[in-house]
Amino acid sequence: GLAAEHLTEALSVTPDDLKLYIMRASAYRKCQRYEEALADLDDAALTYFEAITNWKPDSSFYMSNGTAADKRMLMEQAALKTEPGKREPYQVTRQRSLVLNDMALDCMLEGRHRD
Question: Of 49, 43, 42, 28, nearest to 99 (Cα)?
Fold first, then answer.
């Protein structure tokens, strides 16, 4: 949608802004673009971990041809660099929960809950 496009433009100016990733994930969720929403939440978490650890992974592979699993691996590596018990921000976790909930509801409403 239009909101996601504007947020994409904002992210091109400030790519380290955690709130923009969360807001765009919310916009994608409302448009039922769940995979894109989850990808943005992974980006938000990775941005957060990079900021609190001053650790920058070599993400050039992911940017060029990596998968969501590659990004998850980068996030796990970043999380290991943080203090014990430090997790992704609540807003990211909450939005991730909302996306997964909406995905489940859509499956149930479409009769795919038995798959």
Answer: 28
Number of C-beta neighbours around residue 25 at 10 A: 29
- CA pair distance 26, 4, nearest whole angstrom: 9
For the four alpha carbons of 18, 19, 23 and 29, in that order, the dihedral sign comes to positive
Per-residue pLDDT of 54-64, as tens digits, reads: 766 555 544 44
Q: Is 102 exposed, middle or buried (0-12, 13-18, 19+ CB in 10 A)?
A: middle
Query: What angle separates helix 34-53 from helix 90-109, to the nearest 10 degrees?
Result: 160
- Say which DSSP state 82 is in: S
CB 95 within 8 A of CB 25: yes
CB 41 within 8 A of CB 95: yes
- Does the pTM exceed 0.90? no
